[in-house]
Amino acid sequence: MSAVQVLERQAYRTPLAVLCQDGVTQATVVDGLVVTAWRRSDPSQRFTARRSPISGIYSFGSLPRQWANTHVRVAPGQPVIWPPASPEAWCLLVEDTLGRYLPTAIAANVPISAPVRVPLSSAPTRLAGDATAVVRGEIHHDGTSDPLGWALIRIDTGAAVYQTVADGSGRFRIQAPYPEALPVLTGSPPSGPGLSSVMWPLTITALSQPSVLVRSPGLQPTDPPELTSITGQAAAQLIEGAPHAALTETLQFGTDLVLLLSAVPA
After folding, report:
1. Which run of H or E residues covers position 239?
2. What is the pLDDT of residues 20-76, one digit of tens each?
3. How many CB atoms lie within 10 A of CB 127?
């Protein structure tokens, strides 16, 4: 019987991985997505990620000019020590073939040691699930009536804050769990006005500053700006008679809250 002698070990790590999540529930989105990446300096050559059937993470097995950052050889018994990385600017685009979420663009430096978390915003046409609160609507410029595309809309329930990105036409949709406060039922059997009478106050705010929106090289004007430029917008003034930093609206159980927002962007 002959012994096997290990002469060396080779370690490997992926240069780029992406974890896609629902921006409201934080649930991992594993199906129906296409994730592409390209070097910021060369938008002509794009690469498509593959999804892990176990974790649902989308990863790129190899990327150009990344071999030294993703492969290393060590002697038997020696720890794997990765050399200092030489980061390179890359662009990511996540698209949903099932139409549930808006496309999302991300900038990343590759290699990156942990999966890039991509929060996805609901598309305006997404179907709602059971017992799901829906806040949807449009946001337009108060002076011109033009849509404020890629504005960031936030709702505060008092217990949680949810946000979503408006599409290029200013349409937005938030699907979130209902607040937990329910009416007290009395009597035997219990009776009361019913769930349809349950209401919650919501605080609405918006970020809109079109001048700071940045698109990745290779994307078209109809494509989304990079997410960091969307979330980095300044607060807009919401107009309801007079300018307001925030508006208070009422959500009723079982009924969509539809908002037609008029705003002055920053």
Report:
1. strand 237-240
2. 999 999 999 999 999 999 999 999 999 999 998 888 899 887 776 665 565 556 666
3. 11
- Cβ distance 40 to 91 under 8 Å? yes
Residues of the chain with CATH 2.60.40.1120: 132-264
Phi, psi of 59 (to 5 degrees): -135, 160
What's the pLDDT at 132?
85
Contact 246, 207 (CB under 8 A): no
Query: The dihedral of CA 119, 124, 126, 132: what is its sign?
Result: positive
CA distances (Å), origin 265, targets 172, 232, 246:
16, 13, 13
Q: Which two tokens stand for residue 220?
A: 């078209």
| Predicted structure pTM score | 0.85
Q: How far is CA 198 from CA 28, 76, 201, 248, 252, in A?
A: 30, 66, 11, 16, 6
CATH topology of domain 9-120: Immunoglobulin-like (2.60.40)
Q: Each residue of 173-223: pLDDT tens digit?
A: 999 988 765 545 455 555 555 555 678 899 999 999 999 999 999 999 999
Phi, psi of 33 (to 5 degrees): -100, 150
**Regarding the domain with residue range 132-264, which homologous superfamily does it belong to in the CATH classification?**
Carboxypeptidase-like, regulatory domain (2.60.40.1120)
41 and 90 in contact (C-beta within 8 Å)?
no
Residues 197 and 183 sit within 8 Å (Cβ to Cβ): yes
Residue 76: closest CA among 130, 15, 138, 3? 3
Query: Tokens 């919501």 map to which residue?
Result: 202
Q: How many helices (H) and strands (E) does the chain have?
A: 2, 19
Sheet containing 237-240: order of strands? 171-177, 132-141, 257-264, 237-240, 242-244
In whole angstroms, what is the distance from residue 247 CA to residue 110 CA? 41
